[in-house]
Amino acid sequence: MGRFLVVDDNRAFAENLAEILEDAGHVATVVVSGEEALAAVRARRYDVLLTDMRMPGMSGAAVVHQLRRVDPGLAAIIITAHPGEAELEWARGQGVLAVLPKPVPMPTLVELLARARRDGLVVLVEDDPHLLDNLAEVLRARGFTSVSASSVPEVARLGDVSPFAALVDLRVPGGPDGEALRCVRERFPGLTLFVVTAHPDALPGDFDGRLVRKPFDTGGLLAALERVHGGRG
């Protein structure tokens, strides 16, 4: 059973979605504004936030940003009839599990909610766009949320997020080998580091994380991430 917070200024839509979730055995709370969502998260712990994008006052992207300050481990799904929203890119930078259209594809949503993990955010640093997209997709399929950077400067611009792990390529544009790793360690002290590289000789001498050599076994990497996530606390 999951505990979900549904945010949409269209109360009828939100209540219909909540009823479907409750029929599946979950608990769903409906609010109609970002301000009400903040009050709800301060009062109770939720597993997943489901928010509309375009609302009066606080947008869905702003809701994700503000609620993560209260509860950094909250997973988030944005539901929108306006996939071209400029703020969606900012929202993705905050780490969202998925962006779904309206009307909501319920089988997809139910599957996402069944797998969604609290405190499941992973930082991806990789300059190969195909590999980056593949990693983001396989992580999402296991319920993990990700934020990504493809260069050293992009690492510095990552949002105010609280990851539990990072997958970092040693050699990305914008700095010497290992600079992106140094930036990740500095920005997010204490998280578990996986260095994914074809150049293990470039590892810094004080590296105390996990080495994953390219090409790598995706299933093995996911299993290792799941062990780290499950073993925390």
UniProtKB/TrEMBL annotation:
Instruction: Fetch the Gene3D superfamilies from UniProt.
Output: 3.40.50.2300
Pfam families the UniProt entry points to: Response_reg
| Keywords for this protein | Phosphoprotein
Q: Where are the transmembrane segments?
A: none
Q: Which residues form a coiled coil?
A: none
Q: Does the keyword Cytoplasm apply?
A: no
- Domain called Response regulatory: residue spans: 3-117, 121-229
SUPFAM superfamilies xref list: CheY-like (SSF52172)
List residues, modification 4-aspartylphosphate.
52, 169
Q: What is this protein called?
A: Response regulator
Q: Which organism is it from?
A: Corallococcus praedator
